[in-house]
Design a protein that fits this description.
The complex is a heterodimer of chains A (389) and B (529). Chain A has 389 residues and is α/β, with parallel strands linked by helices. Chain A has 16 helices and eleven strands. Helices cover 43% and strands 11% of the residues of chain A. Chain B has three domains: 169 residues, Ribosomal Protein S5, domain 2; 155 residues, no CATH class; 174 residues, Rossmann fold, CATH 3.40.50.300.
Chain lengths: 389, 529
């Protein structure tokens, strides 16, 4: 179903035009479109003779846009334009209308340019953003890949950028287990940025989806990365920051996740590690949930009870199952040279009769042994779990 | 009558040219051998006598024979003195040699009772020391002719019997027939050879582990010692075995050096004796002290540390090694050679291989601090004891420490992974080693890991910012002085890999992390990993 085979819907045409002329996430446009509709806003921009900052900013670009031709050109590259009228539109993106702006960027996009076979709404239904620093360590990359793989195996989509470091590691972890992934770009989806990730992006476009708010051909500018980050946060149920220095772009994504009331998670690193400092700040100051593996991420984003992680603990030891009184007696039993019950009772500060009872229980558990009427600690491993009465 | 012949006595890897002087004169009938000869040389009297008689020569039975091995104060070992003694006795007796025929030739070989020659260990180092003394003609048992001929400028002659040697020395036109000499090594009874397996390994088989792969590359570049820790089956051995595949071929003089050591063990194949590839030795942790460090009864034989000279010595499960062996490893780690001191004899062998230590996290190898499926059965005390062996004096002498994690399922299936082949890494290592060779031209050093600290700081410092940062680490107590030197050397190796004129802050940072077992940044490894 390409644009050339159906009559171009005026609202769709207006959104294509606005996507081409407006900067991604410019809140002046996204706000007006959310309130008045794309057609009205476009008409106002085109009004002859009228002046105003918004019109002046866009006048030059507006002259040269032909939405039909735009869509046709995109279709030839295997790119489609998804608007809120489409079934494929992920409803989660509408939450952006209610989230506060960051860095003067915000609001739902005009539409999304999408390359890839997967239906965007399906991908976004169960999805987690895995983001972090480009200058990640091997530790961060390894954890990101592990989380990506765990999410992929559970059928959750990994949403991320396409940068070096955490982004690519998360994608590759998911792709390795044939999990769905979405790469959200700051440039047009026909471009590969960074160029070294051409193969990765082609692969994602083959099995998942490569998505951008910027029209095909657009360059990745700094401000577009900030706008892009809000889409990563909005397209997912929660955001995991794996490694981020104090001034990392990943923290911007985290702020969007917080602004959208999505789950915010952080993977800790060594406290001395600069690439983890931003994450630690998120956990300390912004209440991000500390997660250490994919299972814990799933527990945080999945519907209650679907992916619960059992609490970890060491295998119980025989001593753990003793009553305080029995432990008190055990502590009083000598290691090598045995002692008689009365002596142990004296050391433990307990009545001999109760010590007698405790010792027989300890004896049954194999913790103490008796020879010639004297008690001492049993030799050998004390790791076995024994029933204690 | 009096005559003098020459041979070589070895003390460790040091050879001395020895004169064998024989005097045959009137007097009480006796055969005396003087000059600190060991038991095997003393037995030479009987071997030589029988060999001479059975070669249809005459042993001067009714005379007094004095044999002096000179210099007299040098202890001498080995059966290879036979040939020089026998020829000396003949020359002092009734065989006429042309004048000067015995002056500039070294005679090496053991004799059998019927006058044939037998192979002896150490022919190559003997030929090397003869050549160093300006004696360039060497007569050796026939199968060892290739070994002796490895030394540039040396004319090696192979002989099968005493009669052939005499014919050679007298310039006889007809060389008498003799049955061929047995090759030096015993015949291998099994067709399976574990080493053959190592010929096919390649880094391309190693998935993931970018961090450890990079560490391996840096280690290969500068010849740095390395410690790999990680649970059982994580791939520590897999990595270590591939280290030789990224080491360049030995230079002619290096290969001579290494071949000389292996010649002392008597273990060279006679057809292709010269070793051109860096060796890989992996003794089991139950190997004896003498086996690993050198020694043994009688002659002081080179141990595994010396056999791995210029290559890789891999000690798996290193904390299980006896602690006296571990302690004794300190010297080779620091100085690249090992001295085995005995009552009357010090033997020093080169031992400048790269040491790769591998250690499990605990004796059973299952311990993992963060795993929920932790199957370790060791007690905490046992674990602590085991870990204590990792730290201590050896750890301070290790340049690179890496934690190796088992490859994860998703890494095995990563379709976008493109592991590099050994050949690609080898090309980079070779370039980086050429830079070192050029830099250290005119010094005895070839690799960053071997350059002494004071000289390094003096002649090849880090750049200003990096020096300040390193000093800060030392004053802050995070590094010892020795540690700082090691980090300094490592920084150079990273800079050489990157083709930089001088190590800067980033190279220092990589070095600090490699040393402190801290994960590297992906960008440090090469970005697109």
């Amino acid at each position: 179903m390409t644009s050339s085979t159906r009559r171009l819907d005026p609202d769709r045409a207006a959104r294509v035009t606005l996507s081409r002329v407006g900067e991604p996430g410019d809140p002046r446009l996204t706000g007006l479109v959310a309130e008045l509709g794309a057609l009205t806003v476009l008409a106002a921009l085109r009004e002859q003779g009228a002046r105003g900052q918004l019109r002046d900013d866009h006048a030059a670009r507006l002259e040269r846009v032909d939405p039909g031709a735009e869509l046709e050109r995109a279709a030839r590259l295997g790119i489609r334009f998804v608007t809120p009228d489409d079934e494929e539109w992920p409803p989660a993106l509408d939450d952006l209308a209610h989230a506060p702006c960051l860095h003067e960027r915000g609001g739902p996009p005009m539409g999304l340019w999408v390359k890839g076979p997967a239906r965007l709404a399906d991908l976004a239904e169960r999805s987690v953003a895995v983001v972090g620093s480009r200058s990640a360590t091997t530790y961060g990359a390894s954890v990101a890949a592990e989380i990506g793989a765990a999410l992929g195996e559970a059928g959750h989509t990994v949403v991320s950028g396409a940068a070096f470091g955490i982004d690519q590691a998360a994608h590759r972890g998911a792709l390795a287990v044939e999990g769905p992934t979405v790469a959200v770009l700051a440039c047009g989806v026909d471009r590969a940025y960074p160029a070294a990730h051409r193969e990765l992006l082609d692969y994602i476009a083959d099995v998942g989806a490569v998505v951008s708010e910027a029209a095909p051909g657009c360059a990745p500018t700094r401000i577009r990365f900030l706008a892009r980050n809000r889409l990563i946060a909005a397209l997912s149920r929660g955001t995991v920051v794996v490694e981020a220095a104090i001034r990392s772009g990943a923290l911007n994504t985290a702020n969007w996740a917080a602004g959208l009331s999505r789950a915010l998670m952080g993977v800790p690193g060594p406290v001395t590690s600069a690439p983890s400092a931003g994450v630690h700040q998120l956990i300390r100051g912004r209440g991000a949930l500390l997660v250490t593996n994919g299972a814990e991420v799933l527990e945080a984003v999945a519907p209650a009870g679907e992916h619960t992680v059992p609490l970890q603990h060491e295998p119980p030891q025989a001593r753990d199952l003793l009553t305080p009184e029995q432990r008190q007696v055990l502590d009083a039993v000598p290691l090598r040279r045995g002692a008689v019950t009365a002596k142990i009772a004296h050391t433990a500060g307990l009545a001999p009769q109760r010590v007698e009872d405790a010792l027989s229980t300890l004896h049954a558990a194999g913790l103490v042994e008796r020879s010639d009427g004297r008690w001492r600690l049993a030799a050998g491993p004390r790791l076995a779990v024994a029933p204690v009465g | 009558m009096w005559a003098s012949t020459r041979t070589v006595s070895l003390q460790g890897a040091v050879g001395h040219v020895v004169d064998v002087q024989v005097d045959v004169s009137q007097g009480q009938i006796a055969t005396n051998l003087v000059g600190r000869a060991d038991a095997s040389i003393n037995e030479a009297r009987d071997r030589c006598r029988a060999a001479i008689e059975n070669s249809d020569y005459r042993w001067p039975t009714s005379r007094r024979i004095t044999i002096l091995l000179s210099p007299a104060d040098l202890p001498k070992r080995g059966p290879h003195f036979d040939l020089a003694i026998a020829v000396g006795v003949l020359a002092a007796g009734d065989v006429e040699f042309p004048p000067g025929a015995l002056d500039d030739v070294v005679l090496i070989g053991e004799l059998t009772l019927d006058g044939r020659l037998r192979c002896v260990p150490g022919v190559l180092p003997m030929a090397m020391s003869a050549s160093a003394r300006g004696i360039n003609r060497v007569i050796v048992p026939e199968p060892q002719i290739n070994e002796a001929a490895l030394v540039p400028g040396v004319e090696a002659y192979g002989a099968r019997s005493l009669r052939q040697v005499v014919a050679l020395l007298t310039g006889a036109e007809v060389v008498p027939e003799a049955p061929p000499v047995e090759p030096p090594t015993g015949q291998l009874l099994l067709s399976w050879r574990g080493e053959a397996r190592l010929e096919d390994v390649d880094l391309v088989d190693v998935l993931g582990m970018e961090d450890a792969r990079f560490a391996l590359e840096v280690a290969a570049t500068g010849g740095h010692h390395m410690l790999l820790t990680g649970p059982k089956g994580a791939g520590k051995t897999t990595l270590a075995e591939r280290l030789p595949t990224i080491l360049p071929d030995l230079s002619p003089e290096e290969s001579l050096e290494l071949t000389a050591i292996h010649s002392l063990c008597g273990a060279l194949p006679s057809a292709t004796p010269v070793l051109t590839r860096p060796p890989f030795r992996a003794p089991h942790h139950s190997a004896s002290r003498a086996g690993i460090l050198g020694g043994g009864s009688g002659r002081v034989r080179p141990g595994e540390v010396s056999k791995a000279h210029l290559g890789v010595l891999f000690l798996d499960e290193f904390p299980l090694l006896p602690s006296d062996v571990v302690e004794a490893l300190r010297q080779p780690l620091e100085s690249g050679e090992i001295t085995i001191a005995r009552g009357d004899e010090d033997a020093t062998y080169p031992a400048a291989g790269m040491l790769v230590l591998a250690a499990n996290p605990c004796p059973c190898g299952e311990y993992h601090p963060y795993r929920r499926d932790n199957r370790c059965t060791c007690g905490e005390v046992k674990r602590r004891e085991y870990r204590r062996k990792l730290s201590g004096p050896i750890a301070d002498r290790i340049d690179i420490t890496r934690f190796v994690e088992p490859v994860k399922k998703h890494e095995l299936r990563d379709k976008l992974a493109r592991p590099e082949s050994s050949a690609a890494v080898l090309a980079r290592v070779t370039r980086a080693r050429q830079r070192q060779r050029a830099r250290y031209d005119g010094t005895p050093w070839r690799l960053n890991a071997h350059v002494p600290g004071p000289l390094l700081r003096e002649s090849w410092p880090l750049d200003e910012a990096a020096t300040q940062r390193l000093d800060k680490e030392v004053y802050g107590g995070q590094l010892t002085r020795r540690g700082a030197t090691r980090v300094h050397r490592l920084s150079w190796s990273v800079a050489d890999l990157r083709g930089l004129a001088k190590p800067g802050l980033d190279e220092l940072e990589v070095a600090l992390r490699l040393r402190s077992a801290t994960p590297l940044d992906l960008a440090m490894i090469g970005g697109a990993a």
